[in-house]
């Protein structure tokens, strides 16, 4: 697997963003979807990564994505956004690898807190976040309490990765 920066305007990025949007819309009403737009993913305080696998012809194929946005509004932390893996690649540890890369980026910038918002109808995502050390917390930044949202946080350490 190769994890590298992904241009939000690239065709493959647009394809995965569109599929992620459709998946989230199938689970939650629009007021409970807090997805980062392509415009937001292009901001200088955002790192948007793609995870690629090699197909039989040894060509890179986008399998998943994830982003982290550096926030300063209620503390200095990174907010994980847009973690998504195409269905055919789920269960292979790709999400965990993307999370590790995003957390490493934060540590490299000496940012020691990672936060995220996820939906309660995504038990696999919640299980992954708990397994890698995220704990529940209250809403942060501009998020409001939502019975369909779960807010989580992890204190990062350069020795934990």
Order of helices and strands: EHHEEEHEHEE
What do the pLDDT scores average to? 93
| Percent of sequence in beta strands | 25-35%
Give start-end ranges of low-pLDDT stretches.
none
CATH architecture: 3-Layer(aba) Sandwich
Any idea what the CATH superfamily is called? Gcn5-related N-acetyltransferase (GNAT)
Protein name: GNAT family N-acetyltransferase
Organism: Aquirhabdus parva
GO molecular function, one term: acyltransferase activity, transferring groups other than amino-acyl groups
Keywords: Acyltransferase, Transferase
Highlighted features:
161 residues, alpha+beta, 28% helix, Aminopeptidase
What does this molecule look like?
This protein has helices spanning about 10-25, 40, 95-110, 125-130, and strands at about 1-5, 45-55, 60-70, 75-85, 115-120, 135, 150-155. The protein has about 160 residues and is an alpha+beta fold. It has a single domain (about 1-155), classed as Aminopeptidase. A seven-stranded mixed sheet has the order 1-2-3-4-5-7-6, with helices on both faces. It is globular, with a radius of gyration of 15 Å. The model has no long low-confidence stretch (mean pLDDT about 95).
Task: Summarize this structure briefly.
With 161 residues, the chain is an alpha+beta fold.
């Amino acid at each position: 697997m190769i994890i590298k920066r992904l241009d939000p305007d690239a065709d493959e990025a647009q394809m995965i963003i569109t599929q992620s949007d459709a998946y989230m819309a199938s689970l939650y009403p629009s007021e409970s979807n807090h997805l980062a737009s392509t415009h937001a993913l292009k901001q200088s305080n955002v790192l948007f990564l793609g995870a690629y696998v090699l197909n039989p012809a040894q060509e890179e194929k986008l399998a998943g994505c994830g982003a982290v946005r550096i926030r300063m509004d209620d503390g200095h932390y990174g907010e994980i956004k847009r973690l998504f893996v195409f269905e055919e690649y789920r269960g292979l540890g790709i999400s965990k690898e993307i999370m590790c890369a995003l957390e490493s980026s934060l540590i490299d910038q000496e940012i020691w807190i990672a936060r995220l918002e996820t939906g309660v109808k995504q038990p696999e995502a919640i299980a992954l976040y708990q397994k890698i050390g995220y704990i529940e917390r209250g809403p942060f930044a501009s998020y409001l309490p939502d019975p369909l949202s779960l807010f989580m946080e992890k204190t990062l350490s350069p020795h934990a990765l």
